[in-house]
Write a structure and sequence with these properties.
Blueprint (H helix, E strand, L loop, with lengths): L1 H30 L3 H5 L3 H5 L21 H4 L7 E10 L8 E7 L4 E18 L2 E23 L2 E18 L6 E19 L2 E19 L6 E8 L7 E9 L1
Antiparallel strand pairs: 1-2, 1-9, 2-3, 3-4, 4-5, 5-6, 6-7, 7-8, 7-9
Length: 248
């Protein structure tokens, strides 16, 4: 009887200790979290993500070869038209004797065209006899200014010119007309000073380079023709001009 009581006591102690241990194991199983589930982002985490950073385009700086405003702010824009007046020396400074128009083709190239189509006549009456004399002139040409150097308000240009002209003089009477045909090339330099926006002063020196002229004089018999040709690299400032232009 005493042995059976002792075995029952041992079994009871084992059951008593095994019950709490089993309960602790169950609690530990419930506390274990699946690591894969932790890796999954929750909706609240996604909502709290900061917005992507905004990128701004870097400020562009003008290249070294691009003209700055201080260098070209006073100069006329391309495809502008300039009208001007001035003097061709030697001249009386009290009398303006030159007008011109300039076409700005680009920031370095300017054309200064020349065109003439004119007709004039004179008449006189002496002792009841009337006499008349008429003249016709046609001419076309251009001067080209190519800027080689510039600094702030000033510019230095190479100047080249070309032109052709035809004149006919018809005095009273028969077989006495005189016609002249001429062609010429010139070269020189020009200095420009931009005093205000789209306003410029220019000082131009030109020299002859090539010229050809032919004159035909009518006569009762055969016509008389004289021609002349010139070619040379000359610097004698044969023509000096000082002008003021306004560009539009």
């Amino acid at each position: 009887m005493k042995r059976s009581i002792s075995w029952l006591a041992v079994v009871g102690l084992v059951v008593a200790f095994a019950g709490p241990a089993h309960a602790e194991d169950e609690d530990d199983k419930e506390d274990v979290v699946n690591p894969e589930e932790d890796k999954k982002p929750s909706e609240s985490t996604e909502d709290k993500k900061p917005p992507p950073p905004t990128t701004t385009a870097p400020e562009t700086t003008p290249k070294a070869d691009e003209p700055s405003e201080g260098r070209t702010g006073l100069r006329p824009a391309a495809k502008s038209l300039g009208l001007g007046f001035g003097y061709t020396f030697p001249s009386d400074v009290q009398l303006i004797n030159t007008v011109s128009a300039r076409i700005v083709w680009s920031d370095k190239l300017i054309f200064e065209p020349l065109f003439e189509l004119s007709f004039g006549s004179d008449s006189a009456s002496v002792g009841g006899m009337d006499t008349s004399d008429s003249a016709t002139t046609m001419a076309v040409g251009t001067e080209i200014r190519y800027q080689m150097w510039s600094r702030r308000r000033t510019g230095l240009s190479m100047v080249m010119g070309a032109g052709v002209a035809y004149t006919k003089d018809n005095p009273d009477g028969d077989d006495n007309n005189t016609s002249t045909l001429g062609f010429g090339l010139s070269w020189g330099v020009g200095l420009d000073l931009w005093i205000w926006k789209d306003w410029g002063l220019s000082f131009t020196l030109t020299n002859p380079f090539f010229s050809y002229g032919s004159t035909t004089q009518q006569a009762p018999g055969d016509d008389v023709t004289n021609s002349s040709t010139f070619f040379g690299l000359v610097w004698d400032d044969s023509q000096v001009r000082f002008m003021l232009h306004s560009y539009f």
